[in-house]
Amino acid sequence: MAVLPTDEWLMNVKKPPMELCEKLVPYFKEKEATSREIFLHLTRHGMCRSANGLQQVVQEMKTKRIWEKATEIYKVLIKKWNGPDIPIFIFPADWRNGRLQREFNGKGGLSYRDKLFLFLLPHHTKKEMEALIIHEYNHVCRLRRMAKKEEDYTLLDAIVLEGLSENAVRKYVGPSYNAKWTNYYSAKQLAEFWQKYILPYQSIHVTHPLYDRLLYGLNFYPKMLGYAVGYDLVNRCLQKRDVTFAKLMSLTSEQIAKLADRDVS
């Protein structure tokens, strides 16, 4: 598989982006998801919601060779990591999403074991795209190694997943391309967050009402709470002697937390 021609899809459907999700139904066979369910899920993670102004954005993305650049990055990465060959879907990001703009410079992504979605805009540079693709493709590689089913993933699994991916960005692209939330808090604050917020709820699942609040730092929780703690966990591990990124990818989330000297009992 490769980067699919979603630019052509977007230019040819009458009612994008909702209508194009019908083309994605075959890629969600296991979940038996409808096009509307897929649309709601993708927009929740950063895909554009409205057709207003969409064709102009797509045309600008084509002019900036977004699809070609993503293909070049992916070909290099799949050889470097010897990773799985999966389909990649690129759609415009939701330029009206304030949190996406603040925390991720307007870009986003969504990863599965067998596919990957990228949400981009014309202003994103090739280096920014590389950071996003490395982050999301690292998710794919990690998910492939986990024995759990998606519905069994815990909050701890999620924050470690994000921590591994953003440390991969630091390693392969450079710290200047890390997300802003990697520098929000001090080491002392992150240790406190672990004890106060993550440790008591480490085993909750995505259906739990606190899951998203803790992962993203919603409501009155510190913003991007789970992401920041996960980045710190992995970074602490990598500072230890004889600990490599490849080794961490093969460890469980609990093993990584222990290696980072965090209590998991």
Automatic annotation (TrEMBL):
InterPro entries: DUF2268 (IPR018728). Residues 66-257 form the DUF2268 domain. Pfam families: DUF2268. This is Uncharacterized protein YjaZ. It comes from Paranoxybacillus vitaminiphilus. The lineage of its organism: Bacteria, Bacillati, Bacillota, Bacilli, Bacillales.
